[in-house]
Amino acid sequence: MNNQKLASMLITGWTVLMTVGSLPAQTPAPQSPVVGSWFGRAVPFNPPCEPGTPGCPIPFEIVMLPTFYADGNFIGIDSNVFVGFHSTAHGGWVETEGDQIESNFMWLQSGAEITTFEGAFRVRLVGRIDPTNRDRMVGYIQAYFFPFVDGPTQRVILDRDNLPVPDPLGQPLPAVCSPLVGCLGTFNFTLRRIKVDRQPNAPPAALATFTATPNPIVVTDGTGLGQTTVSWIAPTATQVEVRVGAPNGALFVAGGPVGNAQTARWVRDGMTLFLQDVSGGKPLTADHTLARLTLTLSVRTTP
Predict the structure, then answer these.
(1) Is the predicted pLDDT of residue 3 greater than 50, yes or no?
(2) Under CATH, which architecture does the 209-299 domain have?
C-alpha cells in the first residue's frame, strides 16, 4: 500500500469518527414511575378459609413495604405471618404495558417456631400506577408455598441435580391461584409512594437540631430582655460553638455534639444564634454553620 492511499484511508476514517462524534446525544429513556419505595396494605380476596379462625393461615391484612429498583431488582418486607416468621423478600420486576408491572419475589419461611425452617414462598405481584395519582399503585399479590424442607431432619429435600423438591424456580407460577397448587390466596393492595417530605424551593435542611425553650420568651418586667435554654444535637460534628448574631459573632457557649445551656437575661427580640461546627479547627464561616435559631420575645405589661 502506497503512502498516498494510506493517507486517504486515514482521512476517511477520521472523517467518519468526527461525524459519529458530532451526532446529537441520545435522550435517556424516562425512568419508570414504579421505581422507588412504597408503603401500603393488602387484604384477602375470596380467601379459601375465614381469616383469623382456627386452622386458617390467612391473615386479615398484610402491611407492605416494597422497593422497586431502576435496574429491575426488587426488595420488600411485610407484616405477613402465615405461620411463624419469614425473611426479607428478594426478586425482580418488569414493565408489561403502560404503567403496569409484574414482579416475582421470594422469601424464606420458618415454621411455627423461628428455629425451624419450612421452605419458601414465591410471590406474584401485579400492579398498576393510578393514572389520576402517580404516587398511588393498586394491584394484587398471590403467594405460593414450596415446602422443600424435611421437618424431622431440617434438611432441604433434593433431587438428583441437587435442586429443591418442590423447586420454587423450576417452572413458572401457575396461572390460577388455588390451594391445590400451593397458593394461599390472592390479596388486593393499595400502595403509596414514600417521598422526601420537602417543598419545592425550600431552604436546605439543617445538619443539626437547634432549639430554645421557651421560644417565644414571655417578658413582663419591662426590660425588653429575655432568658431561655438553648439545646442542640449535631450528629455530624465533634465540637460546636453557639455564636450570637453571626457565624463569627460573640461566643455564647462551646461544647460537644449534644448539649444545652441557659442564657442570662440578655436575649433581645429577633436575635439569631448560629450553631457552628468547629471540629478540627474549622473556621467560623457560613460554610460551617450547622443551624441557625431566631429567638423572639412576647412582651407583656403587668397591670
Answers:
(1) no
(2) Sandwich (2.60)
